[in-house]
Amino acid sequence: MPNPSAPDRLAVLVLIVGVVVMVTAPVVIGGDGLVRAESLDHFLTTGTLDASRYSCYGPLAAAPLWLLGRPFGYSLHATWLFNRLAVLAGVLLLTRLFRDVWPLSVRLRFAALLLLGSLFPWHTMYFYGEVFHVVCVGWGLALIALRPGRPARLGWLLAVWGTANVPATSVGLALASLVLCAERRRWRYLLLPALAAALILLENAVRRGDMFDSGYANDGGNRTVLPYSGRPGFSYPFFFGVLSILFSFGKGLLFFTPGLFLRYPASGTGTSPGHEAGVRLVYRLWLAVVVGLVLVYARWWSWYGGAVWGPRFFLFASLPASLVLACRTAGPQGHSLGANLLLLLVLTLSCWVAANGLVFDVYDHDLFWGHDFAQEHLMWYVPECGVLWRPFVTPKPLEWYDQLRLAGLALGFVYLARPIAGELVRQLRRVVRTGWTVLRHGPAWRL
Length: 447
Hints:
By secondary structure, this protein is mainly alpha-helical. It has helices at residues 9-23, 31-46, 57-60, 63-69, 75-79, 82-97, 104-116, 120-123, 130-146, 150-165, 170-184, 191-208, 238-247, 253-256, 273-297, 318-330, 337-360, 370-373, 377-381, 390-393, 400-441.
């Protein structure tokens, strides 16, 4: 008999392909990732910190790569590999962390979703700060929830360090700490956002001479036809910000992380009731961070994340979205026909998001950024102008490496969709048989 704890060959192949796709993703140098890399270069070259608005806590973790690349004159290019290595390390560590609470099959599906069915592939090409935040805070909160003692202390360090790297995420950590306080009846978890705030204030004081100077004073966008454009800071109406973050065609989480909108299964896949409770706690902590991100960025003038592909600020949403999808796709047998059709649709869209970001990125979108971004809003709200749907309007000529990446991503989709497809076939057969019986003999009426 086969060993139920042994991974099937397709799962192993898919994970190998996912790692290869991640490692060989294009390197795109630019944006504020370049500012972060240059700040790191300035510090390691001169020993002093510049006054850049972007935190140094994340880029400092990439210092070993900078040092490895410097003798060959490729310190910048080496630094740019940091995010993909951080993603691979985060996927490995999270998968290992769940080894006692999830069956191997569910852990492999979770890893495959992060690598081939989430927002992560696009983020690996850049040096933005969101990856470091997600890996540190996501793993840190999971450690606190699942591993008492010394591992939990490491979780505290990671959660605080990752939050300090993106100060706007402090509200998310505060909400997660409130969940921990309510779950464990201990107020000490409120120290998590307090320590993160202390690190943020310290960096402001060291780099800009004022602990309350974040470097974002009077930061704003261009004036366009949109009624609230051109205003600085947290000037966007909260109601419209929430609607746009959740439901806009070109940036909305409903389309980019659809698994986030699925309910966590009532009967999960934990190896025991205690372990199932631990997984649920991790899910609630991750979801709390996402809620905090929405609350903060809904009022930020650049809620859409700037002139980039997708909802850049909300990479963290890939964690709870992938967790729910891993649980639901591993056991679709208990779902109705309609629920499985919806699940297949959500999984298909999630895998298309990964393929779209990695292969198509912002192809054919330069026309929306001309004339001081006068037409950029079309990318956010008009379906045929959004990044997810633009390839069907103006197809991109695919190079051989694009085709290989799409083939690898398609293999991941086949592996993830296989249980759902098998259950759908069985359910449709039952529907057909029932319908044929009714047609032949009529309904079985009973008094």
